[in-house]
Give the backbone structure.
Amino acid sequence: MSKSKGFIAEFRTFISRGNVMDMAVGVIIGGAFTAIVTSLTTDIINPLITLISGGNGADMGALNIKVTDTVSMNFGSFIGAVINFLIIALIVFCLVKAFNKVEEAGRKLTGTEEEVPVPAPTCPYCLEEVKAGATRCSHCGGEFAAPAKAGSPAQAK
């Protein structure tokens, strides 16, 4: 009985996290947006392709190749799906880029910018990472002219 209560409490904690809720909202909005893009492709772009390829309005004309009486290769439908994907990918890219800009501006305003880590010094002989302040490489035993400094390679003696 206690295992099920622990499981339910753990599940409740998982569901109440902000990331899960954000993801759920994103999936719902993404589904609605996909319907809009599909309509754009089906109702506007595909008729243009039909017009250009010389179709009769019911199919994609020259882009629909009949293999047998019941099977055909519908390149127009495929082109529509590719256009759908490209439009959605472009919009998602623009949204992510805008979100990152807003997030970066927020970090600058609050002063919580991430610090760039300083790289550890490296041995000039074996190119292995050494501790700052070291006068010898612990890997190859090479001796340095001065103690190794963070952010710059150690100088050979």
User: Anything to note?
Assistant: The chain has three helices and two strands.
